Amino acid sequence: MTETASPTTTATESTESIVITELRKSYERAAGTSSTYAVDGVSFDVPRGKFVTLLGPSGCGKTTTLRCVAGLERASEGRIEMAGSVVFDGRRKIFVRPEERPIAMVPQSYGIWPHMTVLDNAAFPMRHGRNRRRGRDVRKRAMEMLEQVGLAPMADRWATQLSGGQQQRLAFARALLGDPEVLLLDEPLSNLDAKLRARLRHELRSFQEQFGVTALYVTHDQSEALALSDTVVVMNQGHVEQIDAPERLYAHPRSSFVADFIGSANLLPVHDVSRGRDGVVAKTDIGPVLCGRDETEEHGNGAGGFVCVRPEHVEVRAADREPIAMAETEFLGTVVSSEFLGDRLELVLRVADVTMTASAPAKQPCRPGDSVVVRLDPSATSYLAS
Amino acid sequence: MDLTTAEPARMPAATPPPRGKAPARVPTGRKVAPAAGTVVNLVMIVLVGYLVLVPLAILLYSSLKPSTTELPFDVPGFSLDNFRTVFESSRIGSVSLNTLVYVVGSLAVALVLSLCLAYLFERTDIPGRRVLGPLALAPMAIPVTVMAIAWALVANPVNGPLAVAIHKILGVHLDIYSLGGMIVVTGIFGFPSMYLMIAPALGRLNPELEEAAAAVGAPMWRRLRLIVVPLVTPAVAAASIFMVVVALEGFAIPAVLGLPDQIFVFSSLIQYSMQPPSGVPNYGQASTYGVIILVLSLILLMIYRRRVRDTNRFRVVVGKGYRQTRVGLGRWRIPIFVVVCLYMFIGIVLPLLALLWTSLSSYARPISWAGLRSMTLTNYSDLLSVPDIDKILLNTAEVVLVTATVTTAISVWIAVAASRRQFPGSTLLFEATFLVYGVPSVVLGAAVLFLYLYIPVGIYGTVWIIVVALVTRFLPRGSRMVQTALMQLDDGLIEAARVTGASPTTVTRTVLLPLLRPALWKCWLWIFAHALGELPIALLLTGSDNRTLVVLLWDTFTSSVDYPTASALAVILVLISTIAVWLVNRRSTVEEV
Known about the structure:
The complex is a heterodimer. Chain A is an alpha+beta fold. Chain A has helices at residues 62-70, 118-128, 136-148, 164-177, 194-211, 222-228, 246-251, 256-261; strands spanning 2-3, 8-9, 16-27, 36-47, 51-55, 77-82, 85-89, 94-95, 103-106, 182-186, 214-219, 231-236, 239-244, 266-275, 280-284, 287-291, 293-294, 306-309, 314-318, 330-340, 344-351, 354-361, 371-376, 381-384. Chain B is an all-alpha fold. In chain B, 69% of the residues lie in helices and 0% in strands. Chain B has helices spanning 35-63, 81-88, 90-123, 129-136, 144-155, 161-170, 179-203, 207-215, 220-249, 252-258, 266-274, 283-311, 333-359, 378-383, 389-420, 426-434, 441-454, 463-488, 491-498, 504-533, 535-540, 549-559, 563-592. Chain A binds chain B through residues 1, 3, 25, 27, 36, 38-39, 58-65, 67, 70-74, 95, 97-101, 103-116, 124-125, 128-131, 171, 174, 178, 184, 220, 238, and chain B through 10, 12-16, 26, 28-32, 490-504, 506-507, 510-511, 514-515, 517.
């Protein structure tokens, strides 16, 4: 492959910090066997100044994607553009080495150098990095940055004397001092305890907004992703499942994987669908369900897919003694178990041999064994193709 | 040898689960390296190839030259005459038999010692474990030449205190100058390395496995035989083959204890053929024996490699998060403790004591209270009047310091290049150094000697020829020490520096090397201590101008038979070596804290 010393600039100056097109990364196995893809045709953009998160279970290819963006690993196929310059192109055999890419990174373990002081750690990018400067200015600027992340009093201590949270802030400060076009963060909160994690999550987002830096963040923690991001890229088995803003991702999951991975969802397998005026009527094991939301792309009739409804959209009321008049959207069920969670009841229901979960108001009297009427609100019920 | 495969520190999340042999590091995008690095790497390959392969080729070449007294290169044509002569002579039978008995015997002694002590220290409630454990490893700090001399002093039939005592108590004549003596001393010398390989396997043995057997009522011996032994077998097998290689190449002990009665093994015979008392070397015979022992040793090494790989199959042995429970020795606790202490005293303390005693006496004499009053330091002051002592000290310093520094430097390159898979051929380079483990020190010395007799570059007879041989000898160990340290280093530390845009050279200088510094010190000190005591290479390559302390020790002990002066010299060598080894250990404990 040819090595280009610096990113080749294309004519179009874009508002995207990173554009990734059809990225694939394979790992060679023993000779003869077909290679498997850790990253298989991933495409997404990171707009300038935004916070984009790669979210997925472990092994989904999110860290590999990040490392390919950083240049620490070389993808097999596809194209990566950064600030309008191509830094990787599989077909044209372009590979820009990580030291030539306009990036900074906060690794999972922070990569704080134990043989240097806090200040030396922070000043490293300015002393040795791609945007080198000279003189007293370096120290001054590093001190200013340490001031902003609250580490100025520790500037002359050894980096090993910092706590976990302080190390993370130092890693962040160091990354920003490299004046990166993009900041790459590889699960930077995963090594911290739960309390600290919640606080630093907040801190991280406010730093990012304050400095206006573009961030690409990798995590397997859905609450982190939802809380931090402008856009979330949900990945599974090397593929992108959905790219959306956090709110839309929760409200309008496009696949059963996303619905299940983000929050919790009742997923009912569908045997047959037909489309009407009010939405999709999907035949499931509990009967036909009217789905007000259709998340499929081609609107033909066919089998397969799932009905998805969040537990908070499953309405439950006690079934009366006399024969019940049930609406089309209502089903008869039994309470299997009920868990009191303070603000609400978590119910496990059995509806025609299908187990469903529902969140009911805490006041609602529900005991295991009770017969209930279950209503699925069509406006909050989605039909997913897969 | 720490050849255990360490798991890579961190794998990217998306890596498929390691199956069989997953690559140690996922190849990064740095297959294309800067040209300068590639050139340096090529130079390294050529250099290591030259250091390792060329001498061996010359050895083989000269074994095919039918010369007895002339230099091999002066003889025209090739023939198998040397091999014919060697295999037809009556000597081959006795030397082979001696070597076999010596190797197997030493292995048995070392194996019994290390198994017993490792089990006692790791798995039982024997008192004083914390003191006895490290003490058992003390022989590692003593150069093997010194060890051999100390045993000759302590157990020689004339006035060795141990021999005298045994004769008085048991009525048995003990002669250290025998095959049996060589076996016992080599066993005790080889024990620490074996112990270090076996003890972790025993220590990490999940006690639940043993307790499960105890719970069903199996008695202790049955538990040992059925549960413990099969689980530690891989480690024991690897350690045993390692010990065989060590014994096969061992020179100082067979030379010091075997030569007086003309008991030869392969390694001592090679040196004897090249530097016989008659003064007329038999190069043909030496190189032929060299080739034989080299082939044997390389075969064993390949078996060893296989074994070490198999060891990983027994993952169950590596337990974590369990409470270490120890087997109660019951009423045998104290008797066993006494036996262990007795071994420590006779095997480790007494020889050193005898050495110290003799160095403070004006003549070789048994240890006695009466002798305390006539102790003297004249032996030490006499050392200063040894002819050319300043020259010898300078030579030693040059050899040891240059060897340690150069070897560490090359090791860093080899290990870093291999672990980062940065340049074409870097993995090959690392693997190639492994070959040197299978080259006995005597053979390496002889081969290097032949090489520089043959090519007139003017280092023959200087300290540099010794440095060249020693660097070759310590390269594999050095590069593996650095590699182990590299594997323990978090990748994030290096990657964080790379993404700032710092050049690879800057990253290496400002981040990688400073982080490796403790390991490099350790490596340097280890080589320093071992280069100081390495006898066969220095002995074979010595001339009038490049004598070192260890050669002086050998000459004083064997030729001049001046035991008190030799002892004083030996004590000094032990002191320097102990300080270095102590520093190595201290540094490693400081890091762990």
